[in-house]
Amino acid sequence: MSTTLRRVILELGTGNDLHGGDYTKAALRAVQDALHHSSLSMLRALRVDPKAMVVEVTIGVQKPERVEAERVRASLPHGQVTVRVVKGGLDVPDPEREDTAVIASAAIAVSLPL
Fold it and tell me: DSSP characters for 40-71?
């Protein structure tokens, strides 16, 4: 019997670091926001091992090079995880305090061999 990898979940989240301009912190919060919108009860119903999930994470921030993608990958509890960081999100400067609020967007796509 042949199986095909099919996307079964797409969750979106946002996260921020209001002070300090930490792009990784904002990305991690965006991923956690997305995860908290989802339940994997479908895996139990289909008797799919969570390790079989293919998890593709896309993070959008204004300075992608400042996100520690490995820390984001390590924050996902299940599956074969890849992380891609792209230009997106939003920086909100506060010139009076020489500070920037960083807003990150996350998309988590989960595919299963079905």
Answer: -HHHHHHT--GGG-EEEEEEEES-GGGS-HHH
Which domains are present in the chain? 5-113 (3.30.1330.20)
Q: What is the pTM of this model?
A: 0.91
- d(C-alpha 39, C-alpha 24), whole Å: 24
What DSSP assignment string belongs to 78-89?
Answer: SSEEEEEEEE-S
Report angle CA 20, 25, 28 to the nearest 5 degrees: 165
The tens digit of pLDDT for each residue in 35-56 reads 988 777 777 788 888 888 999 9
DSSP, res 25:
H
